[in-house]
Amino acid sequence: MTSHANGRTTTDTGSNDVVPFASPAAASGGAHVEKAVAYDAILLAGFGGPEGQDDVIPFLRNVTRGRGIPDERLEEVAHHYRHFGGVSPINAQNRALKAALEAELARRGIDLPVYWGNRNWAPYLEEAVTDAAAAGDVNLLGLATSAYSSFSSCRQYREDFARVLIETELAGTVTIDKVRQFFDHPGFVQPFIDGVRDAVAGFIAEGVAPGAVRVLFSTHSIPTADAERSGPRAGDERHREFGEEGAYAAQHRAVAGVVMAAVAADVPGAEQIGWDLVYQSRSGPPTQPWLEPDVNDVIAGLPSTGIEAVAIVPLGFMSDHMEVLWDLDTEAMEAAAEAGIRAVRTPTPGVDPAFVAGLVDLVEERLNGTPAEQRPHATELGPWFDVCRPACCENVRAGFKPAAAGVAP
Asked: What does the alpha-carbon distance between residue 250 and residue 232 come to, in Å, rounded to a whole number?
């Protein structure tokens, strides 16, 4: 049985460390930590969401802090939440994920508590880290609820970790490492394979010819400037030629290819089915370029290409939060109805047993110091890094802020 060591003394992570705020094993900056680390606890880091009508505007103010957006414009987004009673499902989903992680850890005999905190709504990360420190759990392994590499899906969480340690004055007492981005871990990929297989097989069983089926893999759009800077910077030994849309788009495309290959192997005729990577949920001024094409625009054009049925796959999302419920289940399904084609939205991983087991596998990698070549990954891009590379996933609008779990800056 693995046990966590309450009250264990940690090393001050000062300016001499290549990776600030890190455990001694990760502080030197190697891409993969292949040394066992006796973590005290897991820090589950979420985005957060409102849990009532009165929470909606304060929550959106938190999300857009520093951007000077007036409440009148926030109300344009607020109606998505108000349509569902002002309640985002994301907090309930994180509670369910926390419970599932705790059950899987207990099943494996891993004695690590799970602390949960959010960036934008209660319970906040500050509370989670403070509670952990008060309990003597000072060497934390972060697990952010986002699988891919970009500023908003990785580096911003790392900046959150650093900000919280600085603001709570726990830097030097508490360390925070982070599991690798898990976009291509088999536990994350398998639920998507299952969902697409079921959708495609269902269409074919209903008499739709495979060539008249299309699969749209949808993810959150981000500014193209952020996409270009996602992943390691050019010149870094770990950088690959990801293309103009960076590691963010490359990771999604790689996973989509794996999903479609698996489905083609399982469903007769599925090798004839085409697919696209599409985007949703863009925000920001119209003059700012964001990743395209938009999912609804693509759906509108499908009938002219002979498509009769579409499977909409929320590939960029761990669970059915607001962007899935509104942008896909509401707007994209309406777009399909207007286009006169059949549509199915496939499931997110949520608390699928394969996904939960995969997350605990990631924890065990770090507890055991598993060598990189022994770590499972479904694409040629993996296994991704334990320690993010210098200047990884830069935010061009705000510059570099202190960040944990990565080589500075």
From this structure: 13
Compute the distance between CA of residue 230 and CA of residue 219 in angstroms, rounded to an integer.
15
At 238 the pLDDT is: 73
Give the integer Cα–Cα distance in Å for 317 and 153: 10
CATH number, residue 218? 3.40.50.1400
Instruction: Looking at the structure, tell me whether residues 251 and 332 fall in a common domain.
Output: yes
Tally Cβ neighbours within 10 Å of residue 6. 12
Asked if the model's pLDDT at residue 338 lies above 50, the reply is yes
Structural domain of 303 = 186-345
Q: Classify residue 113: in a domain, yes or no.
A: yes
Asked whether 137 and 129 are in contact (CB, 8 A), the reply is: no
The token pair at 360 is 């605990």
Rg of the chain, C-alpha, whole Å: 21
Q: At residue 141, what is the residue type?
A: L
Q: Would you say the C-alpha torsion 104, 266, 336, 312 has a positive or negative sign?
A: positive
Q: Which residues of 147-166 are buried (b: 16+ CB within 10 A; e: fewer)?
A: bbbbbbbbbbbbbbbbbbbe
Q: Measuring CA to CA, which residue among 169, 180, 95, 177 is closest to residue 361?
A: 180
Residue 19, pLDDT > 90, answer yes
Q: What is the largest CA-CA distance in the chain?
A: 65
Q: What is the mean pLDDT of the chain?
A: 94
Reply yes or no on whether the pLDDT at 80 is more than 70. Answer: yes
> For 395, how many CA atoms within 13 A lie in the half-sphere containing its CB?
16
Give CA–CA dist 104/126, Å, rounded.
26
Whether this model's pTM surpasses 0.90 = yes
Cβ 368 vs Cβ 36: under 8 Å: yes
> Domain tally for the chain?
2
Task: List 142's β-bridge partners, or say none.
Answer: 43, 178
| pLDDT value at residue 222 | 97
Side-chain half-sphere of 275: how many Cα atoms within 13 Å?
25
What is the number of helices (H) and of strands (E) in the chain?
12, 10
Contact, 109 vs 37, CB < 8 A?
Answer: no
Predicted local confidence at residue 11, as pLDDT: 34
How does DSSP assign 64-108, residue by residue? Answer: TTTS---HHHHHHHHHHHHTTTTB-THHHHHHHHHHHHHHHHHHT
Q: Tell me, what's the pLDDT at 405? A: 98
Q: Are residues 264 and 141 in the same domain?
A: no
Please state the φ and ψ torsions of residue 243, each to the nearest 5 degrees. 95, 180
